[in-house]
Amino acid sequence: MNVLIVYTHPNHQSLSHAFLQRTIAGCQENKEIDEIKVLDLYEEGFDPVLVFNEQQRRRDMHKEPSLETYRQQLIWADKIIFIYPIWWGRPPAMLLGYIDRMFASGFAYRDKGGLLPEGLLKGKSAVCISVMKGPTSYPLFWLNNAHKVLMRKALLQYVGIRNVKFFEFGNMESAKGRQEQKLERVQQYFRAVGH
């Protein structure tokens, strides 16, 4: 199994980065995982800005030469792991820009003329690991689970990825947030997970 980790946080001293390190450690301990690649969007200097004009048309986005390396990463991966904080009830703009640019028609899905497209990334699985300052129940009760709906239904299932697991941790800036326990839980999950 090939694992691609898409990491989105500008600070390598953050709790998100600690989750990245524990995810990598768990994957390295898993005999089912052949190779791990990490895409750190901030460190990479990924350009999240969409540009459409007479030279760059939206219908050609799936062929954008500057994104070919990133497309090959997604094709290569059997499991895609997203690690990010929840800011304003949603993932960071950097990750949303990556999604906007990478999950393009002609690459991630194909319109068939019906209600839903054909997902071209089917057969892959995904894990979303997110942390937030507020309580874990906040997205469910105040935002109608908007973050999970966005990632699971509006993105991943739309492009054919049906197997989606969430780790959504709240109270992460609290002294009672049990950060170490949650880090260990994630590492144990990846130590044993299959496709």
Q: In a nutshell, what does this entry contain?
A:
This protein has 195 residues and is an alpha/beta fold. It is built from 7 helices and 7 strands; from the N terminus they run βαβααβαβββααβα.
Write the layout of secondary structure elements.
Layout lengths: L1 E6 L7 H14 L6 E6 H4 L23 H9 L2 E7 L7 H10 L6 E2 L7 E2 L5 E7 L6 H5 L3 H11 L6 E7 L9 H14 L3
Parallel strand pairs: 1-2, 1-3, 3-6, 6-7
Antiparallel strand pairs: 4-5
Account of the 3D structure:
- This protein has 195 residues and is an alpha/beta fold.
- The chain is built from 7 helices and 7 strands.
- 34% of the residues lie in helices and 19% in strands.
- The strands form 2 sheets. A 5-stranded parallel beta sheet has the order 2-1-3-6-7, with helices on both faces. Strands 4-5 form a two-stranded antiparallel ribbon.
Fraction of residues in H or I helices = 25-40%
What portion of residues belong to β-strands? Answer: 15-25%
- From the helix content, strand content and strand pairing, which structural class follows? alpha/beta
Question: Count of DSSP E strands?
Answer: 7
The overall pLDDT, averaged over residues, is 89
CA distance, first residue to last residue = 7 Å
Largest sheet: 5 strands, parallel
For the biggest β-sheet, the strand order reads 2-1-3-6-7
Order of helices and strands: EHEHHEHEEEHHEH
Taking all Cα atoms into account, the compactness measure Rg is 17 Å
How many helix segments?
7
What sort of overall outline do the alpha carbons produce when their principal axes are compared? globular
Contiguous uncertain segments of 5+ residues? none
